[in-house]
Amino acid sequence: xxxxxxxxxxxxxxxxxxxxxxxxxxxxxxxxxxxxxxxxxxxxxxxxxxxxxxxxxxxxxxxxxxxxxxxxxxxxxxxxxxxxxxxxxxxxxxxxxxxxxxxxxxxxxxxxxxxxxxxxxxxxxxxxxxxxxxxxxxxxxxxxxxxxxxxxxxxxxxxxxxxxxxxxxxxxxxxxxxxxxxxxxxxxxxxxxxxxxxxxxxxxxxxxxxxxxxxxxxxxxxxxxxxxxxxxxxxxxxxxxxxxxxxxxxxxxxxxxxxxxxxxxxxxxxxxxxxxxxxxxxxxxxxxxxxxxxxxxxxxxxxxxxxxxxxxxxxxxxxxxxxxxxxxxxxxxxxxxxxxxxxxxxxxxxxxxxxxxxxxxxxxxxxxxxxxxxxxxxxxxxxxxxxxxxxxxxxxxxxxxxxxxxxxxxxxxxxxxxxxxxxxxxxxxxxxxxxxxxxxxxxxxxxxxxxxxxxxxxxxxxxxxxxxxxxxxxxxxxxxxxxxxxxxxxxxxxxxxxxxxxxxx
Length: 505
Known about the structure:
Elements: H1 2-32, E1 35-41, E2 48-54, E3 66-68, H2 71-76, H3 101-113, H4 140-160, E4 164-167, H5 169-173, H6 183-186, E5 199-203, E6 210-215, E7 224-229, E8 234-238, E9 244-250, E10 256-261, E11 267-272, E12 276-281, E13 287-292, E14 297-302, E15 309-314, E16 318-323, E17 328-334, E18 340-345, E19 351-356, E20 368-372, E21 378-380, E22 392-395, E23 401-406, E24 410-415, E25 422-429, E26 440-442, E27 448-451, E28 457-462, E29 468-473, E30 479-484, E31 492-496, E32 501-504
Antiparallel strand pairs: 1-2, 2-3, 4-9, 5-32, 6-7, 7-8, 8-9, 10-11, 11-12, 12-13, 14-15, 15-16, 16-17, 18-19, 19-20, 20-21, 22-23, 23-24, 24-25, 26-27, 27-28, 28-29, 30-31, 31-32
């Protein structure tokens, strides 16, 4: 019987509670009907302030109070006090009813408890003590789903996002023009190369060392020069008419080690120490192809006949052949090395060479490795037997020979046909490498061999006699690349470890 009487008394108490709450709610609604709410937003902040003004005039002195942070703010913030009182509305002219939510809650609870014989143990009341650092429980499966969603969104944004491009109005206009200096040479064959003497343009927009430069392979658009730098950017320059930077692409999060023009001259393939590959449209800046590799990239080369296929090498024993049409790896070429320094396709693209860092105290096999492109089989690794690494390789434009730059401060000449014998009678020496990735290149007519040097000079060698024809004091820091223009017979571009690019004629 006592149990039944206890339940009845409890139900009566609950009924009285609901009646008191309904009465107080109706009273509050009547008063709030004459109040207008104005919401103020502070510029630069996420908090909002609610200020209440009476819609009509009152006899008493009007007062307004501002309450920051609506209730939703406290519900979303897990680190704040969940029981902190807030001011939902403040009424001007009604000071007796301007109470905080905590006072209203205490008044309502006291009114329901008075006059009843209800025990405090049965009274349900939220704990208003300050409890910080408590977060609601989330199931493990839901936590995993929420944690994976941002990663998927970021990857989707990276795949569909455009590259950060900076360009000037003049640069956009001159991107696809044909230079007036190049037009007279388009209809005629390349003339004899002349050694440049004077400086035309000095370009120093890069904030880090320049790793590689390349003229646009399209003859009509060969006024554009591509540069890849350690400052995480790839730039396109008008290096013939103005010497200005046309566009800057900031697609990589680390240093850009290699960048190459596509055969059409409309796209740029770049790879860097962030292990990312990007194929970027030059005009729009959109990433046509983007993929992450398992290693840091240091060498990229397009296939000479298949424009959609390229080779990628770096800090890995593997060299991979990619197809841009399918965005997949075609073949993998594995060697017992740690790093690929450079890649060189031989004529017709059936075979290619890789230079590696596989040098030991006793032997230097695998320093230069010849590969069959289709079968991914090694043709030979007994090409260069001297104990020096080869940071760069270049092919002669007319004869079936190639040159390897060595860290022994000389360039060695090899046959481009099997068994790739070294020419022991010719050695191009006089410049300094000293550990830098110094590049070398032939002139378009094949009569000159040009190379940079660690002391900032540019050396011009006669290809047939292997003698130094001229030395150009081009830079103060190490000159890592020097390339001739493919159309203009006496134009040379050089870059150095200080981030400077210079054009000589």
